[in-house]
């Protein structure tokens, strides 16, 4: 990696370390108990995902499970981002002046570090198929965050841990059931980064290109295009839409599995669901603005939209039909199909709405 590409990553890591609190204060024995509980319940959750989904891959998982603190999660997130976007960013930085590299590197590093510091206190778990050194991916369980939320909700430790693990283990199963999915997403993200970097170079070279981009942005604003996508070229927007469909499905599918359990598996599940929902609904105005800034509101929408899609397909056609998504890339739902499940059913299942 060139020095120009290393600078933002180093700044991001330093800023995130400085701004991220270590987590709830607990005795060493309590911390060990939290970690032990997650390790013991992880295979229990995987077995439950296998039962609910019927996916054979859920019984032969080869990806890793790691219980980590906030700093380790941040380091993994930075390593994964560099793996996915490093080549495009390095190309975009070639030829820039030392002053531009220094100012731009520090600026982008501070911003991404601040965002990471917020996410590091909120992410409960994450399956990362792109973690360097883990060819089949790694499930990261952020122990201090799981314990912080459990304590805030005052719910049973075993039940809450298993409930969270059901969602996270489902992501692990998804990539095992669709071994082609990692390479597919990796390629699409690389195309997205190349398109974004290419557009930035075009805008910086030619005033006419900038004027065309501004007009495109004005037109997009009238059409309701999200602010974060206004200056993306059409090719990048198309990839973003495709990835939104994929991520919405993955999150919605995990929520479907999470909500499929009853008191026989998680005795206090109704209490956990109610308090978890109330917690999200009672966020302050400042917190909502902050979450909108870092993109968490869009993530929450993906959970909702994806779950509605999965529930509709499961209800109307069964789990076997839903599992066909994992057969090949062509079966992934588009963003439009997420909002209109009958379109996916017609295309993939050959079923038309009555």
UniProtKB/TrEMBL annotation:
Coiled coil ranges: 193-220
Domain of life, per lineage: Bacteria
InterPro entries (UniProt xref): CHP03883_F420-assoc (IPR022454), Zinicin_2 (IPR018766), Zinicin_2_N (IPR042271)
Keywords from the named record: Coiled coil
Statement: the UniProt record of this protein carries the keyword Nuclease: no
Stored Gene3D superfamilies: Zincin-like metallopeptidase, N-terminal domain (1.20.150.30)
PANTHER family linked to this entry: HYDROLASE, PTHR39420
Protein name: Coenzyme F420 biosynthesis associated uncharacterized protein
């Amino acid at each position: 990696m060139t020095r120009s590409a290393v600078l933002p990553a180093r700044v991001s890591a330093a800023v995130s370390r400085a701004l991220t609190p270590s987590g709830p204060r607990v005795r060493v024995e309590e911390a060990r108990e939290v970690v032990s509980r997650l390790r013991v319940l992880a295979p229990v959750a995987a077995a439950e995902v296998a039962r609910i989904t019927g996916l054979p891959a859920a019984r032969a998982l080869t990806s890793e499970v790691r219980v980590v603190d906030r700093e380790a999660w941040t380091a993994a997130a930075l390593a994964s981002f560099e793996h996915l976007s490093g080549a495009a960013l390095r190309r975009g930085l070639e030829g820039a002046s030392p002053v531009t590299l220094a100012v731009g590197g520090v600026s982008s590093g501070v911003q991404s570090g601040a965002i990471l510091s917020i996410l590091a206190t909120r992410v409960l778990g994450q399956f990362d198929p792109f973690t360097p050194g883990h060819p089949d991916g790694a499930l990261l369980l952020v122990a201090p965050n799981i314990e912080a939320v459990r304590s805030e909700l005052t719910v049973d430790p075993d039940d809450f841990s298993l409930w969270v693990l059901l969602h996270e283990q489902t992501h692990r199963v998804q990539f095992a059931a669709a071994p082609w999915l990692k390479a597919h997403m990796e390629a699409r993200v690389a195309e997205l980064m190349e398109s974004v970097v290419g557009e930035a170079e075009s805008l910086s070279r030619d005033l006419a290109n900038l004027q065309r981009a501004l007009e495109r942005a004005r037109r997009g604003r009238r059409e309701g295009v999200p602010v974060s996508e206004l200056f993306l070229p059409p090719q990048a927007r198309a990839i973003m839409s495709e990835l939104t469909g994929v991520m919405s499905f993955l999150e919605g599918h995990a929520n479907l599995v999470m909500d499929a359990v009853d008191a026989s598996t998680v005795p206090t599940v109704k209490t956990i669901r109610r308090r978890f929902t109330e917690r999200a609904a009672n966020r302050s105005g400042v917190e909502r603005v902050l979450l909108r800034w870092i993109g968490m509101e869009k993530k929450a929408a993906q959970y909702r939209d994806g779950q509605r899609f999965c529930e509709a397909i499961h209800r109307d056609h069964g789990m076997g039909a839903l599992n066909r998504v994992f057969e090949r890339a062509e079966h992934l739902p588009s963003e439009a199909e997420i909002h209109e499940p009958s379109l996916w059913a017609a295309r993939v299942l050959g079923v038309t709405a009555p």
